[in-house]
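User: My instructor asked us to take a sequence, write out its structure as tokens, and then describe one feature of it. I'm not sure where to start. Here is the sequence I was given:
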Amino acid sequence: MAQDGFTQLIDDSNAFFAQLKQNNTKDWFNPRKDHYNANIKKPAEFLADLLAEDFSRIAGTTFQPKLFRIYRDVRFSKDKTPLNAHLHMMWRQPGDNPFAPVFFFGSEPGIMTAGFGIMGLKGETLARFRAFIDRHGSDLEEAVRRTEMDWSDWGPPPLKRVPAPYDTAHPRAELLKKKGMTISTRMEDSWRDENGGWLRQSGISSRKLCRCSV
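Assistant: Let's start with the prediction itself. The structure tokens for your sequence are:
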């Protein structure tokens, strides 16, 4: 079966990132930067723009794409490896509504995920989120179960302790530690055998995510 451009992007990026994981230095990357820009970054930007149109059409509101940089911010990290060995994209609505859903996609060798949620809540909005968890956490867990998706670690890392004023033995302690809520689904390799390939599967995931976010 002939590859479409998007399947080629996934295969090229997986091959590149598999090598990068074994050679995560700028000395290895710099001679291959042009290859990365031409064969991964530019096609990924095109894909992000295309899916932004898809999300916007399905959801009925504008979504703006973001392709994450390959360079890591290591200023406050114990891990000083300089480069991200994965392909990450995100789509968000313009404006400052902290509860507007964000969609995301990630691909690396052996793993491909798509998901959505709310990320990086702070101050009053984070307090409101925790109060919601306290009162309706069981309903939220049931709603997530019905989506057939899983809790995701996209977004800011959780707190190490349950925040005050909640009890450390709270039945939703792990949710209370979060600074937002994201869920995701794995995209199985079966898309390679389907008509329309990866692009069709990404479209199916887009529609599923938009329905779940309503």
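For the description part of your assignment, you could build on this observation: The first strand starts at residue 64 and ends at 67. Try explaining in your own words what that tells you about the chain.
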